[in-house]
Amino acid sequence: IRCLTRRGVKVVRVPWDYDFNQIPFDGLFISNGPGNPDFATVTVENIRKAMATCKPICGICMGNQLLAKAAGATTYKLKYGHRSHNQPVRMVGTERCFITSQNHGYAVDNNRHMLRYFTKPRLCSRRQRVGRGLGTSVR
After folding, report:
1. What's this model's pTM, rounded to 2 decimal places?
2. Distance between CA atoms of residues 63 and 37, nearest Å
3. Please, are residues 73 and 50 in contact by the beta-carbon 8 Å criterion?
4. Coil, helix or strand at residue 47
């Protein structure tokens, strides 16, 4: 968020269950949890409404999981979670790899229902083959 504000972006923070579709925005940044994404049904509905506007949406950690749920995916609890630094994540279809810091207990089940919004998973965990990022085609 600091990187965005340093570049002159106006950032408006709202509570998890706020209907941000009531205010004008150019894009959404959905931040991390904590919690089970299955309990944030109000947020998922608000994200689904925002997706219909075709405005840019970025989700990190739980935000990525909520964005995927809004697109029709399901999430599941990881047996041990991903809680550490230096986790390798590969860009799907390439050999390009990023080192990330992760702290979450849930993952997205990359199913076919998401394909009406997303073309494919974009990032994948090298250790457990769990999806880490979603990509979309330009509309």
Report:
1. 0.77
2. 9
3. no
4. helix
